[in-house]
Structure formats: structure tokens, C-alpha cells
## 1
Amino acid sequence: MNFLEERIMKDGIVKEGNVLKVDSFLNHQMDVALIDEIGAEFARRFAGEKITKVLTIEASGIAIAYAAARAFGVPMVFAKKAKSINIDGDMYSAEVESFTHKNKNMVIVSKKFLSAEDSVLIVDDFLANGCALQGLISITEASGATVAGIGIAIEKGFQYGGRSIRNLGYHLESLAIVESMDPETKTIVFRAQ
Amino acid sequence: MNFLEERIMKDGIVKEGNVLKVDSFLNHQMDVALIDEIGAEFARRFAGEKITKVLTIEASGIAIAYAAARAFGVPMVFAKKAKSINIDGDMYSAEVESFTHKNKNMVIVSKKFLSAEDSVLIVDDFLANGCALQGLISITEASGATVAGIGIAIEKGFQYGGRSIRNLGYHLESLAIVESMDPETKTIVFRAQ
């Protein structure tokens, strides 16, 4: 097991409905040293790629994207949900459905911050059905930028998001892929990588 | 001028309606080195305080809080807007009105992550009317924790948030306090500190 799988086994909580709670270290309270390690691991796995920007979606992807951006020495951009009066009209946008919140959001990125010269690492904390990721890929490609890679902390391997993204030919690296979880026995099985 | 005031003068854009856009480096695209410097500056200004947690609110406070948490070597917690099915029922909550989005949100922090033993540095990117900050203070004090300090990147000194927080006796440090802005002449006047 790698450092993230070990931490999930130690502090993750399996709940009914295929919910894996990692809110004590990853997406509500954040363990800075762990997230720095995730950023460094993305830098290792995508060392062969030219990365000019790291892109994520608010809110829980921001710290991981920030750690990755530091590791690559590039700016980080986060896609915003809904429209803010502080954002110019000139936006790339995509509609994204949330598995967690059971709703749809428009996500937007200012055209100022992605261009055809960019080679983008897309980062997020979770990958389940892949809707958020598809939105970020769509925005990146609309800008003319290249998707150089996709880095995920935890992938739910029993949902179809990861498979469909890999089938499309993207270089997707998930640090922990949960193959199955059982809320009764509290067991978590990771895919061997 | 300090490093943040200089960056605001260089890349900030003054718009009608007292809007200061800093989305190229602070709250949409993020300059990692600048935000690390903000974290380090908070560590310097609150060096005399015992800090056990850094608390912020999603989304644009997360990277700054993360940088501050690294500088102090403590966990970061971000308050979430609205209710997620992935969050337990046991929550501290406060209602917060957004100046930017002209709406109200319930913000919540799990009771697991704040307790009477905690001494909290509250951090955010902007302080205007202070609603978000008041919510975070209310949540911190409901938990029995101490508000050890409040660190803000940019304060709009012509709105009443900062004054009311200081009047209440909190140790508030804003790295840049905008005294006035003029969208026609593109000028920004900072408060001398």
C-alpha cells in the first residue's frame, strides 16, 4: 500500500451508499503534510509531461491542486461554480452534475487563464462518475490547451468515471483506487496498481 | 508598500461598484509563490500566538489557509457552504451573507474538528462587510475554541467589517487595506500600517 492507501485504511470511514468519508484529512480538515505528499507524487508520476498550469474545481480540489502547482512551479487555476459578479463575461463553461450533492452546477474558467499554449494537469480529490472531470476536460479543450494528464487522489473504481476517461486515451493517475467497500465489515479493497 | 500591495497595484483591476479584481493571482488563478508568501507573513505577524488550527471558508480562502497552516505546521479546516450528504449531522453552523454573490449560505464545520483545546487562526482572502468572518468567529466560539487571530489578505477599509471586528477586540491583521479605489483613474490608495 502507498501512503494515501495507508491513510485511508487508518482514518477513512466507510458509510452506506458507497460513501467513503475522508473528511478528517482530505476534504474538510486537511493534513498539510499529506497533501504536500500528494502534490509531490503527482510531480513524480507526471514528470515526463510538460505542465504549464494545474486546473481543478472548487472547493475540495483546491488544496491538492495548490500542492501540485507548487511541485511543478506553475500557477493553479480553479474552476468556479455558478456565476459571480466579480467574473468577466468572457468564460469557458461546462455543466457538471455532483454525485455528492445531487445537483447540477455551471462551472466556469476565465478565458484569460487558459490558452492554446497551455499544457494542463487536471487535479481533483475524488473521481466517481467523472462528471466534474469531464467538465474540466471540456473547458481545457475548448481553450485550445492540451490535457497533459489527470491526477486524482481517490478513485472509486467500481464507478465508471475512471474507465471512461482512460478509454478516451487520457493519462489518468489515481493514487488510490477503491475496488470495493463494505460498511458492515468496514473493509476497503484497493486495486493493485 | 509590502509585497501584496505591490502586486495589487501591478495586477489588480478596479471596477465600478467597489469591485477589486485580483483573479489573476489570488482567487481564480493563483500564484503559488505569492500565496506561500502570504502564509509566511501570517506566521510572522502571529508568531506570538499559539495556533493549533487554521480555519477558513470555501472556496477562495482555501489556498491561503493551506499556506498559513503549512507555515504553522498545523491542520487546516475549511467551513463548507450548504449541507452535503457526506457530512455527519453533528455540525457547528452559522448563516453568512455573501457580498459578492448577494445571497445567504449556511456554513458548517464538523464538531470533530474544533474543540475547546483549539487556538484558531481564522484566515480569508477578502474582508469587506465581515459577514463571512463573523460566521467563522461564531463557529469557533461555539466550539469553545479560542480565536487566536484573524489574518486577511485584502481588507476593504471603506467598508465596516474590519472596524467592527477590531472594536470587538480581535487581533486582526490585513496585509493590504484598501482605503479607496477609483475605477476612472484606476488608482488604489492603501491605508498606511
## 2
Amino acid sequence: MAAVRTENGRVVAVVGATGAVGTVLLEVLAKRGFPVGELRPLASERSVGQRVQFGGRSWDVELATPEAFDDVDFVFFAATGALSKQLAPEAARRGAVVIDKSSTWRMDPSVPLVVPEVNADALEKNGGIIACPNCTTIPLVMVLEALRREAGLRSAVVTTLQAVSGAGQPGIDELDAQLAATAGGAPAGAPKVFPMAIAHNVLPLCETFRDDGYSTEEMKLLDETRKILDMPELAISMTCVRVPVRVGHSASVLVETERPLSAEAARAALARFPGIEVRDDPARNLFPTALDAAGSDDVLVGRVRRDLGSDRIWLWEVSDNLRKGAATNAVQIAERLL
Amino acid sequence: MAAVRTENGRVVAVVGATGAVGTVLLEVLAKRGFPVGELRPLASERSVGQRVQFGGRSWDVELATPEAFDDVDFVFFAATGALSKQLAPEAARRGAVVIDKSSTWRMDPSVPLVVPEVNADALEKNGGIIACPNCTTIPLVMVLEALRREAGLRSAVVTTLQAVSGAGQPGIDELDAQLAATAGGAPAGAPKVFPMAIAHNVLPLCETFRDDGYSTEEMKLLDETRKILDMPELAISMTCVRVPVRVGHSASVLVETERPLSAEAARAALARFPGIEVRDDPARNLFPTALDAAGSDDVLVGRVRRDLGSDRIWLWEVSDNLRKGAATNAVQIAERLL
């Protein structure tokens, strides 16, 4: 296990500090009081020269090079997979603990893939790089683990409804531009980030298609869930959908447990689980939505009910894809390592 | 069976002619060349005095009273359930064929509930009132029937993503008003049609909750599908979700057939089925979206693929909730009766 070298005031590098996740990461580090002694905001050439605000002062964004990781304690990679592939081993070799938000290292058997509430023990065997799961995987494994601890776990059917910020700031900008154009009656314009117009539309594709007709996003949900839960044969059936929402991923989830579970018992198990907040009272029209999740570090769960034709449990989960789905989970990993 | 009394140039009444579905109904009657000799646009007192355009002329909207149905051949009810409950029997008693879009008569055992491509034979035993299914039921039973004819049918898991026009013109107006307010940075304002803000949000509730935590919309999907397919025990597991889309209901559907089916065979069975158009080529990023369905009379289907952990088939279906989900299906019923 890579050592954390100073007792207080860690040297923290953030690669991709000016992007959608990087910006939130700085907010989360500040809000949670992470002991940052020195901040090194790093980026590719395009963003060098910008400045970011943190801890009451302004920091220059510098070029992400191997030497930039000298004497660094923690590195958060919130950038492209290419940058992570090239530089994460360089940072680890210099003694830093790398927490990577890209998909580059997630399925590497030697790299722990961690949601602290679920499998913090996997952190013990790290070689300097720790992977943070995809934004849809994190809330899913939390609800599945909560139910598994109560009644075992057999399978799940999942349909996700994912915010445009899953594609970063360009995704938000594209939705906003299309909404502005169509509000005035103009056409949405040629899409760049998404394959078709996302304003007033839903797209049954996140990321790109593989040859077998599944999207790379869907396969992440399957592969990462199996790795984190250490259930290599777990049956996850999934469709991932993009919706015209700025922030907040939602999912409808149908869970088959090993032992039948009442809705009340499922709700209680979810409410007990750290990092999950249950908001579920149909009589008062209470259920969580993407807007409720935006800005929250928790996974919000509602609509917990028994399936009408089987012993399965339906639920609805929402989370902030930039926070618990990304930045918050990464910072929580670093907190565990302190 | 109620007789259709004239050979050509039918007298056609439309109750709710100025609403979202009523407006589209007039368009569909015209586009499909339905033989309308005389149009009687009817409405509750609130809309009396308005005029609608049809067949190159303007028609006065008159009050929907029992006497307004004298000498009428076909009545389309595209209004509230209360109006339908009160007036549909009056119209039928006067010899008109009533095609009702409300939920009032759908589960009445003496009333056929019809999607012409699926169960047109149910029209033979009508007592003057024929019910048109809910907008989410129609596309679902079409894809299920297409697969049933090929390989039998066991169960389905469905998550719908429904447009705001499912709540009529007020639903569209509320989304547009919230988008306009939030684009300028203002709050969305207090919602009236939906329980929470729908702009930049998704709500896991369509219509209202029952005591058991299921929504009335979800129960319609179950009950109506069972009736139309004449499978009273069919297992349908469902979550119905509202999305910030003006027109076009989408659904992700996982279907268990009696005999295993390859994706190719499922795709071919769907493509053969009348009223279904398959748009499915991941290699070319081809899949149908809500915007594609808007204005179409067909159910569009894509993302047909085998589940990775079972013999089930995943698919994605979209349809125009005001057309095939409402007006088109109603007009198709009338065409069958001609």
C-alpha cells in the first residue's frame, strides 16, 4: 500500500481541475475539509494558464507532466482516459496515491475499484492506483449491497435515465444551446456531443455502441457491478438512456433477492445503509428526483415496492453524477486512506 | 353490433375537439381521408363558441349534450372521463358508435378495448362503446403481440419515459413555462400539472398514486395489456416515468418469450408486424427517439438485443402519444367498423 507521507496538509494534485468533475471535486474537497496543504491543479496544454480558486486563494493551472507529481500525496484524475493511462503510473511510481475517475484502470485486476460504503476493504491491496467506478455504477451497487446484506442478491433489471453532464460541461452546453434555439422556434442545430438532438428528446444510448449492440456505458454497469460486489456471475440486465436533464442520474431498478423481502424490510435496509437517504411516501407524493439529488452527496431512494407478479423489489434511485457519482466518491476514497 | 347508418359522408362528432388529442384527431381524420360528411365538434361549456378548422371550412364548437348525438354515426371522445361517463351511453343509445379515449370504459367487460393490429376481432361484440387503450399500453401490446406470434409470451419488465403531453396541452405549457423561467436563471415556479418541476427533471410518477404505492398509470399498463392480449395472468412489471419531452412516449422493455428467440428473429417478427417500423442499426448509430416518433402513426422500435444473462429480449419502443397512442388508434378503430 502506497504510504501517505505527511501527517497534515497533504499535497493534492487534481488533473482536469477545470472540467465539470474537476470543478466539483475542488468544491467537495473544501466542503468536506480535506486537509489540503498545497494544491496542484494540472491539465493538458489547452487549459494551462487558467486559474482555479481553492482555500481562499487562486492557483495556477499547470501542465500535467510526470515531474508535476514529485512530492505529491494524492492525485485525483478527473480528465480523459488517455491522460490517465499515460500519467497515473508515473504519479504512482513517485509515491503518490492515484484516485482515477476515468474508466482506464477499473477492470485491471490489480487495481481496486471502490465505493467506500460497499467495499472499502478492497483498498488494502492497492498498488498506488485506485479506480473510482462509473457514475451509474456507484448508486446501483449501493442499493444492491444494502439489499444483499438483508436478503442476498440474485439479479437486477436496470433502466438508467442519465443527465447530460455525464458527458461533461460540453453536454450541458449542448442541451442548453438546443433548448435556447428550439424555444425560439428554430431547429436544434447539428448535435456534436450526442448523436442526435437531446432537447425535448431521450436517447437510448450513452457513450458508444459495441459490435454486439450494447453500449460501452451498459457494459461498464455490468462489469463494474460484478467486480465491486465480487459476484462475477451476477445477472444485471440493463438499458442506459440519456435524458434532457443537466445534473442527476436516475434509475428504475428491479431487484431479485435470494430470500423474499417485504417492501417495508427493503426500505428499512436501504435507510440503514450509509450514504443512502430514503424519500418514499406515495401518500404525500414523496419520491426523489434528479433535481433533488443535484448538490447532494447521498444516493436518494424512493418508490420501494414489491413487484406485482413476483417476489422482486422495485425501487427508484437518483444521485448527483458529478458528486456521489464522481467527485464525492473519489474524495471519500482519499479520506479512507488518510 | 351497432350499425353504421350511411354509406358515405358520415356524421362524426368529436367531444373535446379543442384539446391536445382532439386537435390531432381532426388532423388524423383529414390525413387518413376518413369520410366525414358532417363534423360536430363538441365540448364542455368552457370551450363552446370556439371554432375548429376541418375539411377546408370552419366549424362551431357546440355544447356536448345528449341531443347533440342525434343522427351521429361516430363519436370520438377525447375529453375528460366524467364527460365520457355521462354522455357515451347517451350517444350509444342514439345509435352512434362511440370510440372513447378516456379510461372510463376500458376495463368494463362488455366494452372491447382495441388496438386494431392486435385484437380487431374484439370489435365484433361491441354494444356501441369501444374503448381506446392508454397511450403507453398501445405500443407495448403491439411489440408484445409481435413477439408472442413468433415465440409465445411469458412476461415483460417495462420502464416508460413519457412526454408531458400525456397530461394534455396544460402539460406542454407547464414544461415550456418552466424551461423559459429557468433559462433566464429564475426558479421554475410552483408546479400545477405535475407534482414537482418537470423542466430539467424526471419524475417517477405519471398520474397519481394508489394506496399500494403503484401509480394509476402503471396499473393501466398492467390491466389493459392483460385484457387486450387476453392473458389475465400475464406478469408485467412496470415503472412509469415522466420526462421533459413535449411529444413521444418511449419505453425500455425486457420480454421473456416461451421459446428462446434470437435478436435477428425478434427483429424480423417486429418488422413484419403492421404498424411497427424497426430502426435498429447500432453500427450506424440508428435507433428511434421520441423526436422521431412525433408526427408518425407508427410504433418505432430499436435496440433489439438478447439479454446478456438470460434468454430474454430487450427492445426500445417509441410512439407519438397523441397519434398512435391516442388519435390514430381511435381513427383506425372507426376505419375497421366502416
## 3
Amino acid sequence: MGGVIPAAERAARAALTRLAEPGDAWLGRAVAGLGAAEVLDRVRSARAGEDERLGHYRVRLPALAADRELATRAGARVVVPGDDEWPAALDDLGERAPIALWVAGEGQLADAARRSVSVVGARACTAYGEHVAGELAAGLGDRGWTVVSGGAYGIDAAAHRGALAVDAPTVAVLACGVDVPYPAAHDGLLRAIRARGVVVSELPPGSRPTRRRFLDRNRVIAALGRGTVVVEAATRSGAKNTAGQADDLSRPVMAVPGPVTSAASVGCHELIRGRGAALVTDAADVLDLVGDLVTDARDLRRGEARPHDSLDPVTLRVLEALPVRRRASADSVGRVAGLDAPTVLRALGLLAATGLADAHEGRWRRTPTATRAPEPPMPG
Amino acid sequence: MGGVIPAAERAARAALTRLAEPGDAWLGRAVAGLGAAEVLDRVRSARAGEDERLGHYRVRLPALAADRELATRAGARVVVPGDDEWPAALDDLGERAPIALWVAGEGQLADAARRSVSVVGARACTAYGEHVAGELAAGLGDRGWTVVSGGAYGIDAAAHRGALAVDAPTVAVLACGVDVPYPAAHDGLLRAIRARGVVVSELPPGSRPTRRRFLDRNRVIAALGRGTVVVEAATRSGAKNTAGQADDLSRPVMAVPGPVTSAASVGCHELIRGRGAALVTDAADVLDLVGDLVTDARDLRRGEARPHDSLDPVTLRVLEALPVRRRASADSVGRVAGLDAPTVLRALGLLAATGLADAHEGRWRRTPTATRAPEPPMPG
């Protein structure tokens, strides 16, 4: 992983995440100018009273000793600028970019973040918000997009779960160490995210969340997504803060409307009315704003002239029998469709030729971006 | 009523509403150029084949005979341009302005339309939409604004009822004669509107509604309000048509958001997202867009520096005990507030001096524009 980064620089960046708080622009400038190893050396050698700023960082020097062991126990890796896994999007944060990230999970962060949308919202969400966040995330996942969120109760959790439900990668950016089960009830959710995606933090393992860290964490969520969707938010909320950070980064801010009688939607309505957020109602709306013109164009997902409109009934039946979220053998597809093998294979060939299906090691699925649009009118 | 309009011209305009369909721009130009009496004369004297257009109008000449009797039975008056009761806002329709209006009810149309908002929406609305339309209309009525709508099932009815509930005038613009109980179940509602406001139509008494007439009626609703609010609308709906007509007239178009899971809100979300409608959640939002800067300024209704912020607790308690929608005796206010008569009278005097309460024939209420904002935190 990232052999081009000198080991000392990597280690120094990791150490600085222990000594400083996230989003420290002074430190960002120092590291950009001198390199992390030199900055760390200066922190270590600073004498009391010599440089007040460096003195602050010295306070936590004793904690550094335990970090290697902590990181191993946490199953975390350090990702720094220049690594393959470093998401280029974070560089937009300039001097407030993370010095390094602690990453845990089977996913590859840069890959996951390449086509990603941040979905955030109230902890104290309603059943409506939870439902919408889950559907939105599943819709994004089905179309090959990664959902980035904060791993919190409420909208965050619903968004992560929606992505996981369609077996899509999702990224949780925490305001504590990636080994810290916060909130405690999300231990299982965070494990599931690690199994399919990644859990990320600027803070080294063992770090506890603080109010300040939540706010600084929000800028990483805002930077990782191509845009930020707020699903439910009270008039003052962390989600609105994340939206503001996305706006500062010139990323599209989107908000889901809700009943005007619901306090949980007030923040969303404020964002739309006063702050120029786009009103979005589903994944298609979101991708109209942040998606790639060709791959994600609405008419391929929803519109009148879908490629399969011209399919013969037998081929359409095979298409409808094809799973989206996993792969299946041609035999299995034939059983679902109730068609014999030669017919199924001919149809699969046609579907593959028009880009509606693809095969990998002899197992077939619908091409994710091509469908989900038509709910099969009737089984069979 | 408008003695300056020659009787022959008034009668001719009334007659032309029988002979032509609403929104007939050709007729509008002819009347503007020649006067209604001359146009009617030419219709009467036209011979078959001489002028195809005039020939069309001749088809209904036999129906004219019964109109005087019908109008009397309907309790309707004819209002034409130049009359005191003619709303100047209709002139914005240009050659598509109504030739004349048939008006029934105790209200005065021009007065009612001076500060008015059109509130429209789906016939097949949800309980949510009905609730929001009612609250919105009551909020507008409380602030001295008239609600204009179409008298239909659903949102229209809820808006009219919301206005009536706060004893505010409301205007129903029908696509049939003002004497035609359509829909039949709204006979009582239309009677209530006539008692406090007005029922209006371009069509003479006895006329039945048609699809075309509904669409043409919408332009009158759009023109009468300073802006149009759509509360709930499916993706294709009459309410969106009204919104389009308001937009054509450069009147603000507003829409109330709702759950993205509700088909009844899809049209509203489309208006906000794609068509530039403003998202509004209550009467205060609406008046931010169409209200008068001083009278309706948000800080008088909601803002930080409300006059009563400086009130002593006892006076505030009396204020909260004061009804908004009706008047009450000082004794009754005292009972609600749990305060003795001298205390209540002193507080009422103070409230009257600061404009927060007013008395009429010894009966008190909160001054409508001054409050409704603070829901009393707790009774007592």
C-alpha cells in the first residue's frame, strides 16, 4: 500500500493525528511546508516556552507510545496523501485536509469515494425520514454509488443500512477512533460497514468523540461526497452544518422535503428556501445533480425510451428474472423465468449485447445502472 | 355600484358572457375596440355565412331571453370593468380578461381581492394537505388576507373553510354559474362563502362546468391573487395549471412540500425543483413573498423583537387569554387568565396602548396582525 510514501513521513503523519485536533489549519500549513517528519521532530525537540503552538502538541507526546499496538488491535491502517487509497476529493479541503486517515474495513476508500454521495440527517429522525434515507441509499447503491455518512443514530444509520441492504459499499466517517464503538448500539452496524465498505476517522484508535470533533468530522463527510443530501434536520443541526461545509466546498447541497407539520423537516425546508439547496425526492433526483451525464442520465433510469422497451416478451421475462444485487447462474435464471436453457442463453446474450446484463465467471446479473427502474409489473 | 357604466354596455357585457366562452381573446379585442353594445349588435344582426365568428355567437342568442330572470333567482350581480367592485388585478389578463363577472355574496369583490392569495390544490388531497391548506388559509385570514380558490373538493374546500373559520372573507371562482351547486356536496360551503365573501364566475347563472371552463377559470384565480400557493398536486393537475397561469402573469408561484412518499405532493415538489416555485410552509412564508413590507413583515409576526417580549408576566398572561378569532368580555378574559377584574382591565389597557389588543363595543380580542405567532407556551 502506497510504497511511494516514505515510512517516516507516514509514521509522522499518523503521530500528528494523535497530537493535534482535526482540521488544524496551522498544522496543515506546517506539514505542507516542512513535511510531517520535520514538523514532528520540531514538536519533539521544542522546549517549554520556546514556541507556544508546538508546546500544545507536546502535551500528548506520551500517548504516542501506545499507538502502534492500538492500531493493530483496531485493525486500522493509516492512509496518507499520495497513497492509492487516499481520496483526491479530500484535497479540496486545502490546509484543513486531514493529515492522515485511519481506515478500517474490506473496502478501498478511494475507490468507494470515486462515485459517492453524502447522506446525512437528524439523529432524532422520524419513521418517514428513516424510510426515505434507506430508500435513497439503496437507490444510490443500486446505481453503483457509495453512500458516505457519519455512523450516527437516525438518518445516518438508515442511510448506511440502505446501502448495505443492496450490497453496496458505504463509508462511515467517525468523530472518534475507528475502534471506538460509538454509539455503543452501533457496534454491529459498524462491523457490517467494515465487512463491505470502510470506517474512517482522522482520529487515531482509542479517541473519544467530542462536540468539536463532530463538527470537524462533518467537513470530511462533506468533502468525500460529490454532493450532500440532508434527509431530515431540525432548524439547528449537525446535518445543516455538514450541508454548509459542502456548500463551502462548492459541492451541491440537496435536501429532502417532508411534511411542513414535522419539526424534523424544518431544517430541510430552510435549506431549500433560503440557502439554495436543491429539492430531491429520490436517488434519480440526486444523480441528476451529481451523477455522470451518460452513466446516470435519468432517461436511462426512468425515462420513456428505455432500451428494454424494444425487447421481445421472452427476453424481457429473462431480464426480469435476473437478480440485480447478486449474480445467478443461467440455470437459476431459467428456473425463475420458467424458460428452457437454450432460450435463456439466447436471451442473456441479447441482454449482454445491449448492456442490460453482464456475466462474470458464468454468473449473471442485471447491469446495475441499467435498471431497477421498471418494477417488474407482475412476477412471471 | 358603478353608475358610470352605461346600462346598455353593462347589459351587453352580461349578454356576451352567455354567448361566448370564457377567455375568448378575439371577443376581448372586439369589445375593447368597439364596445360591448356594438359587438352585441353586430352579433344580433349578423346573417348566416356573413361572418363565421359572429355566427358562432349567434347560436346561443335564444338563451339570452331567460337571463334576467335567472340572474334574479341566483341573487347575482354583474360586475364589469369600471365598476367599483371590478378587481383591477384582472386587467393584467389583457384581452383574455373576463368580459364581465357574475358575483354573488355579501362581500365586495374588489375589496376582498386587494390583499389576496390564491390557494389551490388537488381534489384528491390527503388529510395532511387538508390540514395544511386550512392552517395556511386561517393564517392568511388572521393577518387580514383573503383566500381565493376554486370551491372544489379537497384543497380548495379546506382553504375556503380555513378562511371562514377565522371569519375572514374568501372568494370562490367557479367554472359554472354562481347558482349551480357544483359539486353538489358543496352547496352549504358555497352558501357560507356567500355570507362572508363572494362567489364569482365569468359564466352566467345556469351554466354547467366543462373541462375547458375549469382551465379558463384557473386564469381568473391566478389573476385575482397576488400570488398562487399550491398545497398538494399530483404530477398532472389543475392546480399546476393555475400555477402556470400565475407564472405567466408574473405573479409569485409557491408550493407546500410534503412527504416524498406521497403522490399528492409530487406536483408541488416538481414546481419547486424545476419550475422555480418558492417553498412555503405557512402563512408567514407566503406573506414574505407577496405581503406588504411594513404591515406583513415577518418580524412583526414571528421575529425576535416582538412588542410583547417586553411585557410583564401578568400582562402576557392576559394577552394569551385573549381570543384571536372572536371577541370576549373582560370578565371572560379574566376567567381564562385566572386574574381579577382590576388586574385584567389594567393589562387590557396596556395591551391596547401597544396595539396588541383592541376593543369593540366593550369586547376584546388580540389584534390579528400582531400575534397568532406565539403559541401560548402553557395554558394558565
